[in-house]
């Protein structure tokens, strides 16, 4: 059973970070990005002989698959079937994997001593592009279509 406080918190959360919004994407993205960033930075210390771009691409790809399900459940909605969203998301993830790997490679050549820190803005810039393409093309999110969790709610 939901307590009134839990329900109020959920309603406040929905008002401040509605489904499909950049704010909601950022909340889920913070979790996804933390998993990615910890894995990537840890791997650079464990495998210093492996190229930064290879490690970046490997962990971007692995956490991208995880992120798809996080965003499907939390950020957007599941009105589109998985057999639509997953194959449609693959070009987005591949494009962002290649693009972000190229930019992190360029940054690692220009600023090798700061590469761990420069990974953060690289990740954020690519994240905004991913949000936009996921919202428009993959999940085809529309705020006018209520999510299943909003069924039965009255204003």
Distance from N terminus to C terminus (CA atoms, Å) equals: 21 Å
The major beta sheet can be summarized as: none
Strand percentage, roughly?
under 5%
Strand segment tally: 0
Going by helix content, strand content and strand pairing, the class is mainly alpha
Proportion of helical residues: over 70%
Spans of at least 5 consecutive residues with low confidence: 147-155
Query: What oligomeric assembly is this protein in?
Result: single chain
Order of helices and strands: HHHHH
- Count of separate structural domains: 1
Per-chain topology:
Blueprint lengths: L3 H13 L5 H25 L5 H24 L6 H29 L4 H24 L17
Helix pairs in contact: 2-3, 2-5, 3-4, 4-5
In words, what does this structure look like?
The protein is mostly helical and 155 residues long. The protein has one domain. The chain is built from 5 helices and no strands. The chain has helices spanning 4-16, 22-46, 52-75, 82-110, 115-138. Helix 2 runs antiparallel to helix 3 (52-75), helix 3 (52-75) packs antiparallel against helix 4 (82-110) and helix 4 (82-110) packs antiparallel against helix 5.
């Amino acid at each position: 059973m939901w307590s009134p406080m839990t329900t109020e918190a959920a309603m406040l959360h929905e008002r401040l970070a509605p489904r499909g919004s950049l704010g909601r994407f950022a909340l889920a993205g913070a979790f996804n990005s933390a998993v990615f960033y910890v894995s990537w930075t840890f791997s650079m210390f464990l495998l210093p002989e492996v190229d930064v771009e290879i490690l970046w691409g490997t962990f971007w790809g692995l956490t991208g698959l995880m992120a798809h399900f996080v965003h499907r459940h939390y950020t957007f909605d599941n009105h589109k079937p998985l057999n639509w969203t997953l194959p449609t998301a693959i070009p987005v993830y591949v494009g962002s994997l290649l693009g972000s790997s190229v930019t992190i490679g360029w940054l690692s050549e220009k600023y090798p001593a700061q590469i761990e820190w420069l990974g953060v803005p690289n990740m954020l810039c690519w994240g905004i592009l991913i949000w936009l393409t996921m919202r428009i093309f993959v999940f085809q999110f529309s705020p006018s279509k209520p999510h299943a969790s909003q069924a039965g709610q009255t204003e």
